[in-house]
Every structure is written in structure tokens, then in C-alpha cells.
Amino acid sequence: MKPKGRPKKPRRIAKKPEILVFSPRGRPGRPDEAELKYEELEALRLIDINNLSQIDAAKRMGISRQSFGRVLREARKTIAAALVNGKIIKITGGWYKFDVEK
Prior knowledge:
Order of helices and strands: EEEHHHEE
CATH topology of the domain at 31-94: Arc Repressor Mutant, subunit A
Oligomer: single chain
CATH class of the domain at 31-94: Mainly Alpha
């Protein structure tokens, strides 16, 4: 059976992050984990660190502005929930390909 809908395009990521896990201090026991996808981290980097517009950031990642907005919204939701609830943030997974910026 053929999948419905449009095929998902891999998001272009500049490089693999050096740090893949953030863990809260001061929380006894083993906290739960929140998964932040590679493309979500890239979206945060492009918008909040490189100060690009959503249109320019979406072009860099090779996706539409609407798709970029969804990725960014999900990234911020994941980070906020992890910070508020004291969860470990693991950077892993997603639908991406590495593409070095020039």
C-alpha cells in the first residue's frame, strides 16, 4: 500500500552538534528525557543564534516556511517542557541530512 500525502523532504543540517545531552542539576534520581530532533536544534540555531528570518532559515534547511514554523514551534515546546519539568534533553533522531554551510 502506497503512503498517503506528500513525501517528507529531509531537512538540511549544517553540522552534527558537539553536545548531544543536557542534564538538569539539583533533581534527585534519574529525570525523564525529552527528545529534541536534529532539525529542531538547527531551527533554533538559525533563528535564535544566527538571527535569520523564518523565510531565510527555511531556505537554508531546504523546506517551506510553513514546515519550518512547525519544526521551530515543536522545538520550543520540547525545550520549554524539559526546562519546566526538569527533564534531560537528548538531541537525536529526525529526518535530516548534513549539508555544510558555505
